[in-house]
Amino acid sequence: MAIRVIKSMILQSVLYTTTNQQLLLCPSLATWQCSPTPSMLIAAPDNFNPDVETPRPQTVAEPTAPTITPLPLKPKPTPPKPTATPEKPVTPSPITSLPRLTQETDQIAAERAWKYFERNWNLQTGLVNSADNLPWTTWWDQGSALLGIHAAYQLGLLPKDRFQQRMNTLLETLEKLPLPATGLPNKAYSTRTAEMRHLNDTPDPKGISGWSVLDMARFLLGLYVIRSHYPEYSDRINRIVTRWNLSKLVKDGWLNGAIPKAGGLLEVQEGRLGYEQYAAQSLKLWNIRANNALSNPPVKMVEVDGITLQIDQRNLKNSGATNYLTNDPYLLWGLEMGWNDAVKPQVQNLFKVQQQRFKRTGILTAINEDSLDRPPYFLYYSVYANGKAWQAVNVTGKAYPQFQFVSTKAAFSWFALMPDQPYTKRLRDFAQNLADKSRGYLSGRYENSKLGVNASVDVNTNAIILESLLYQARGRHPLALDARSQAKHGIQ
User: Fold this and answer.
1) What is the pTM of this model?
2) Average pLDDT of the chain?
């Protein structure tokens, strides 16, 4: 199918998603709990990655399922005012030489993933397309792009002069970036012109699309990594971020986004268990505290195939947003910031339940949020969502069980994080050659063998592969933290 026709279908899918999602209203005093007669908006749709091809330790082989204790409830603290600088600026330890990949398969994978950036990096703005040949982006995707570019430079794929030239171009774009009246970047922009766009890639000159705190958190994490590793950019990055009204990203200790509503914007709580804590940890690097998101999410325990997992009580029915339990936020958390002790049992059981499904069914299992090469163009494949196990749904909650898939970025990430597990080695071997020689890595392969590969190509898949390879080359050291910060935060 011609690329122009595919692009048209993708954007139609975005428009459908963004105009047909209905938010539930809620009268309950609990900020997440709804009754049958709602009267107050309490949750945003998960539109940080729209329903399209774009928008969005050493262990043993058979780990014992640990007992999970729900996060304790704590009284609401008064958060400090967010700032554009971290509590204590992190200066990376001096590096005498850049990390290098030692395995041929890793070097081949890195070069394949870098192909995406060579095709989709816009020289006039420094922004990277969210999907192959689609000049449009969200800030989640640009967070991925920053981390992918950083990984590529560290791994020797990008010469220093080109890295500096393109980083300077990006910073110039951010310095002049048009902002809405909110003082926060709009949800979407053109990667060619840096003009504000709607989620359906139509012009949005007034920036009425709102903002996603989840997107902004990932982009701020990317900026933090660039600032920490390349001090020559620190002052410019600080000035850029100071332009933004960061205080709007948190409200009453919860993550705070905004959606279009009745000719204006409506501020809403954003994020569900996993994504919520990953974003809150990312914001914490900038001294932006979402203490309720970190410590008080409404969770309950469920069993999937006999394995106990935490899930968010705020689901599609009672909050208007699906409680996806999928790999992406936990894998990014591990690669970028390192897992703390509180999240490790959830991560271990999330891994174990996927490994067990493979043993039980013979179906290789590596779930994720991912773009598709066919309608509906984007799905969240979860261990558990909206009361059911092994759900592949779009943002409106419609299930597409026929399109369950093995995620390439999940396969690479699990192996990087747990290289001693035979199952992660199987995943990595499976994903190694899921690439187009000129475009980069494909999103994955459908579990239904008749459907073959999921030939969608996007920035998140290729950036996260590069991240995972850098994590390995650094001796499994998280990308965002140096040794002192790791010890301070109790991260291994």
Assistant:
1) 0.84
2) 84
